[in-house]
């Protein structure tokens, strides 16, 4: 409990981080699709767009993913179009990204969405994780919060780094106990009105400011208001 934030800190952190994100977020192709109105069938386009980006971004840098993502979405813009493709076609377009099991599992999962759900993506993290191969806790929470506005936290390497520095947590993140504490902190912080934007914001902070080496503390919106224990 000693690592948890006060209610005042939570409110201040949400406001500061979202203001920073609104002004500084990177222009990424999967984010552009989020401006679509949340109406059927666009909600499935949004979910699919985020799903593809999250799978590609596993173990791969953003700058590498962008060109692959654009080609992928141009060729297969919907779950129906991807489900009709052969695995050979999928692997061919994926060539160069590595970790080919990601493409295979994504292809399998999309076929399941079309065959068993009529092309409609499950919209909660629990359903996504329970039904789709290759979708773990982080990916399920990212899709459901960013595409479907579910109030669930995300915890990737960037968020872990931000949280351990904010709360000065020194125990190894590989420990189950540490991981549980970090998920709890992430859940405490998620903004109920803008969960997807908040999750993207805290991941963005870790990617561009709170870097593993030589963090750019002078640009951090949280350190300057006294919310980071590691601020320099």
UniProtKB/TrEMBL annotation:
Its EC top class is hydrolase
Q: Which cofactor does it need?
A: [4Fe-4S] cluster
Query: Which Enzyme Commission number(s) are on file for it?
Result: 3.2.2.31
* GO aspect biological process, one term: base-excision repair
Keywords, ordered alphabetically: 4Fe-4S, DNA damage, DNA repair, Glycosidase, Hydrolase, Iron, Iron-sulfur, Metal-binding
**Which is one GO molecular function term here?**
8-oxo-7,8-dihydroguanine DNA N-glycosylase activity
* Domain of life of the source: Eukaryota
Its Gene Ontology cellular component terms are: nucleus
HhH-GPD domain segment(s): 56-208
Q: Catalysed reaction per UniProt?
A: Hydrolyzes free adenine bases from 7,8-dihydro-8-oxoguanine:adenine mismatched double-stranded DNA, leaving an apurinic site
Record-stated family: Belongs to the Nth/MutY family.
Protein name (record): Adenine DNA glycosylase
**Source organism (scientific name):** Opisthorchis viverrini
